[in-house]
Design a protein that fits this description.
Layout (H helix, E strand, L loop, with lengths): L11 H14 L3 H20 L4 E5 L3 H15 L4 E5 L6 H8 L5 E3 L9 E5 L11 H8 L5 E5 L21 E5 L17 E5 L9 E3 L19 E5 L4 H13 L4 E5 L10 E3 L4 H5 L6 E4 L7 H13 L3 E3 L2 H6 L8 E3 L3 H7 L7 H12 L2 E4 L5 E3 L5 E3 L12 H14 L4 H19 L5 H4 L3
Parallel strand pairs: 1-2, 1-4, 2-3, 4-5, 5-6, 6-7, 8-17, 9-10, 9-12, 10-11, 12-13, 13-14, 14-15
Antiparallel strand pairs: 15-16, 16-17
Helix pairs in contact: 2-3, 3-4, 6-12, 12-13
Length: 448
């Protein structure tokens, strides 16, 4: 999978608005369709190197892109066949159909396959699941190489509905911008390798993919406190907090304190088992507090969360600490790191895609929310969001969320924007995991 780094993501409505704005001041919609078809044709050429291609065209503009690709591939000498679900229903699609000089077959049971199937049936225009008879036709092509135009047919491009396409793609060419379905489960894996064809559409979305993580060396004037001092509060299961404290240093902070634990994960972490939590919170050098890893709900957690909130220090809240803090979070600068179950408990009743729900939770809480999972979403109260697909599936093991909380504490302790800190922490977490790969356990993330 190769979703581009730091790429724009637009919903279907936002995409249509961007196309209209582009056509009003730049290339026409017909020119945009020509560019889209050319991008599909170029990708198909690379996939099959001149072998026969079958293009499935729908009645809308996605089908129009398919007709353009058919014409351009035929001009290169490719043996192209076109099968249509119905006659073109838009002016653009009709014009593209007229440009195709070859025959058009019916999309039925007797349709013969080809080495490459190009799915140009619906794209982002789908508003309901595919009819059973059409799904049955498409399933017959399973196992063939498939190139989807914009999104595989049968997918809700906005990622709200959990429809799964009957014909998953090996490659998807996203046109103009990525769509939420390219980065959210369950649709994202069915898109295969996602490529972005910008086709000249200029948009300034508030949702983007995760930028490529890059580590900056500390400057010559740096010292341990300028690089960030972070306090991790341990609960009854100190191993989780130990992972978080170790991650604080590995993610670039200069000073890590593990409060409430008798042993540190390694010597550079300061372990304090006494009652000095409140005194540490008052230290003016303290840049961030992490609380929640290995700390179950209860009176002790509530007291420690209240003390941390009262200090006014920037917070990273994980696990049960999220629900404990939410009613009194106020103006404290915070990052919340819930997985799906914790999110549902802390923010019940939210609707829409995972991006919609993460944004609503961030706005509701006033905090940056890292809604964890294979399709992690990071959202800020002002509507900015980043989708971190694909992550690293080896992170699906105990303790890796504690490591992420510690990385957030390291990034937050340096000052600056909490959303940027959260994005950097997720980038560090995924980059670290990919470098380790098979067999990863959480402890590996914080080893040298």
């Amino acid at each position: 999978m190769s979703v581009p780094a730091d790429a724009p993501i637009l919903t279907s409505d936002a995409m249509r608005a961007a196309e209209a704005a582009c056509a009003a001041s730049g290339p026409s919609l017909a020119e945009l369709m020509e560019r889209a078809g050319a991008a599909v044709a170029d990708t198909a050429w690379r996939m099959v190197a001149g072998a026969p291609v079958l293009i499935l065209c729908g009645p809308g503009n996605n089908g129009g892109d398919g007709y353009v690709a058919a014409r351009l591939l035929a001009e290169r000498g490719v043996r192209v066949r076109v099968a249509a679900l119905a006659e073109p229903a838009t002016d653009l699609a009709r014009a593209a159909r007229l440009g195709w000089a070859g025959p058009v077959e019916a999309l039925g049971d007797d349709l013969a396959p080809a080495p490459l199937i190009i799915d140009a049936l619906f794209g982002v225009g789908l508003s309901r699941p595919l009819a059973d008879d059409l799904a049955a036709h498409l399933i017959r092509f399973a196992g063939r190489r498939v190139l989807a135009v914009d999104v595989p047919s049968g997918v809700d491009a906005d990622g709200v509905q959990d429809w799964v396409p009957p014909l998953p793609a090996n490659v998807t060419v996203a046109l103009g911008a990525l769509k939420p379905a390219h980065v959210l489960l369950p649709a994202a894996p069915t898109c295969g390798r996602t490529l972005l064809a910008t086709i000249g559409i200029d948009a300034a979305p508030t949702l983007r993919t995760l930028p490529r993580f890059e580590t900056d060396d500390p400057d010559a004037s740096a010292h341990k406190f300028s690089r960030g001092m972070t306090l991790v509060r341990a609960g009854p299961m100190p191993g989780a907090a130990g992972l978080a404290a170790a991650a604080v240093l590995r993610a670039g902070a200069g000073y890590a304190i593990l409060s409430g634990a008798s042993a540190a994960p390694f010597s550079a972490v300061i372990a304090e088992s006494g009652d000095g939590f409140s005194e540490r919170l008052a230290d003016p050098r303290l840049g961030a507090v992490v609380i929640g890893p290995g700390y179950p709900a209860g009176d002790a957690l509530d007291r420690d969360v209240a003390a941390a909130l009262g200090s006014g220090k920037p917070l990273v809240l994980d696990a049960a600490a999220i629900a404990s803090a939410l009613p009194r979070l106020g103006e404290v600068r915070a990052i919340l790191t819930p997985h799906a179950g914790e999110f549902a408990r802390a923010f019940p009743g939210l609707a829409g895609s995972k991006v919609d729900r993460a944004r609503a939770a961030a706005q509701q809480s006033g905090a940056v929310v890292i809604y964890k999972g294979a399709d992690t979403v990071i959202a800020a109260p002002d509507g900015r969001a980043v989708a971190a697909w694909p992550g690293c599936s080896w992170l699906a093991t105990a303790g890796t969320g504690d490591v992420l909380a510690g990385a957030c504490g390291a990034m937050l302790a340096r000052g600056g924007d909490a959303f940027d800190a959260a994005v950097a922490a997720v980038g560090w977490h995924i980059a670290r995991a990919r470098a380790i790969g098979p067999g990863l356990v959480a402890d590996d993330l914080v080893k040298a």
